[in-house]
Amino acid sequence: MGGTPAAGVLQSPPPSPSPTRGEGSAPSQRHRTGFDATQAWVFDLDNTLYPAECNLFAQVDQRMGEFIASFLGVPFPYARHLQKSYYRQFGTTLSGLMKVHKMRPEPFLDYVHDIDLAVVPEHPELGEAIKALPGRRLIFTNGTRAHAERVAAKLGILHLFEDIYDIVASEYVPKPQAEPYRQFLKLHGVDPKAAAMFEDMPHNLEVPHQLGLTTVLVHSSYVDHPVQIGIRNWQKPPEHVHHMTENLTEFLGDVLSTIATPKSA
Ligand SMILES: [Mg+2]
């Protein structure tokens, strides 16, 4: 099943990263969906830069419930119910807690990210692929900078990134809302038409697609999250998902081999 190198790169139908593909089409179309113009490589952190098989989010998920139970003084099962319902209603559990209960975000974020990273493996091959990408490399996460730094350091890839844009930088407005994407692009001077975004949640790629970034969905057949089950049932990817892969390292290797090919035009 998925997660092995054999899982390979699954391309969605319209574009190919091939630099020669689309020579006859409008340049904007080619740049939007390929990688030949990509100068900034933007990565989500959780379940994107490390495999979903690590199940790291299960720890965060559990600790969110614990924090809410303690903070509101409610039984754990009810805290879990609130956690999930705020996630659905506000995009993140944190947003719901801040809006409904006027909760300060810092203690919550510190608590939920205080997790055991023993399950995150070092990944030198991923590091080599990221290092070889031409241009700038950034992390854009709905988590905190501290969490991203810990996880990326455990993977052995932290030093390869120019900066991390986190939920504090976005003033606690999470993806998939449009504001943090716009603010991220402006803050870092990233031209969306010369950028690519890697994400494990398809809805987090809708705004990047609208803004002109090339989008890559890093998905997993391991996870039973409703979103991942939904992806497995797609007849074809939605328009905002330009590329799909279950193996980020292999996908980046394929991208590197195509953009390293001299242009034929
Ligand atoms: Mg993620």
Ligands and ions found:
magnesium ion
**Total helical elements:** 11
Poorly predicted runs of 5 or more residues: 1-31
Q: Roughly how much helix do the residues carry, as a percent range?
A: 40-55%
CATH class of the largest domain: Alpha Beta
Q: Secondary-structure element sequence?
A: EHEHHHHHEHEHEHEHEH
The backbone outline, from C-alpha atoms, is: globular
Distance between the termini: 40 Å
Question: Taking all residues together, what is the mean pLDDT?
Answer: 87
Supply Rg: 19 Å
How many DSSP E strands? 7
Q: Beta-strand level of the residues, as a percent range?
A: 5-15%
Question: In total, how many domains does the architecture comprise?
Answer: 2
Strand order of the largest sheet: 1-7-6-5-2-3-4
CATH topology of the largest domain: Rossmann fold
CATH hierarchy: architecture of the largest domain:
3-Layer(aba) Sandwich
Profile the largest sheet. 7 strands, mixed
CATH homologous superfamily annotation of the largest domain: HAD superfamily/HAD-like
Structural class: alpha/beta
Key terms for this structure?
single chain; 265 residues; alpha/beta; Rossmann fold; DNA polymerase, domain 1; 2 domains; seven-stranded mixed beta sheet; 11 helices; 7 strands; globular; binds magnesium ion
Overview in brief:
The protein is α/β, with parallel strands linked by helices and 265 residues long. It is built from eleven helices and seven strands.
Plain-language structure description:
The chain has 265 residues and is an alpha/beta fold. The chain folds into two domains: 14-50 and 121-259, Rossmann fold, CATH 3.40.50.1000; 56-112, Orthogonal Bundle (DNA polymerase, domain 1), CATH 1.10.150. It contains eleven helices and seven strands. Strands 1-7-6-5-2-3-4 form a seven-stranded mixed β-sheet. The model is unreliable at 1-31 (pLDDT under 50). Bound molecules: magnesium ion.
